[in-house]
Amino acid sequence: MAHRIAYIPLDTYPEPLPDTAILAATGFAASLGCNLHVSTFAVTLPAMTSPLGGYLLDAKE
After folding, report:
1. Over the chain, what is the mean pLDDT?
2. What is the pTM of this model?
3. Residue 48, helix vs strand vs coil
4. Residue 15: per-residue pLDDT
5. Tally of CA atoms within 13 A in the half-sphere of 27 that contains its CB
6. Furthest C-alpha separation in the chain
7. Dihedral pair phi/psi, residue 31, rounded to 5°
8. Does the chain have fewer CB atoms within 10 Å around its N or its C terminus?
């Protein structure tokens, strides 16, 4: 017997999803009789520096 699959991408940027939203999504998938596949992605933003800004503010990195 083939199973239906529900895919839920979890966004973590700029703020993570609240637990209630995740529980609601999993409950909805379960009510449809779906297997659940979930993925999440890590977002890493490098620090941006400006040589001109450092010169004007005389700030160290």
Report:
1. 80
2. 0.57
3. coil
4. 83
5. 6
6. 68
7. -65, -25
8. N
- Kindly give, in sequence order, each residue whose CB lies less than 8 Å from that of residue 7, ignoring residues fewer than 6 positions away: 37, 38, 39
Q: What does residue 40 show for φ and ψ, rounded to 5 degrees? A: -140, 160
Give me the residue label for tokens 């450092």.
Answer: 54
Q: What are phi and psi of 28, to 5 degrees?
A: -65, -45
List b or e across 2-41, with b for residues whose CB sees 16 or more CB atoms inside 10 angstroms: eeeebebeeeeeeeeeeeeeeeebeeebeeeeeeeeeeee
Is residue 37 within a helix (H) or strand (E), and if so which, with residue range? strand 35-40
- The structural domain count of the chain equals 1
| Sequence-ordered strand ranges (E) for 1-61 | 5-10, 35-40
* Cβ atoms of 16 and 40 closer than 8 Å: no
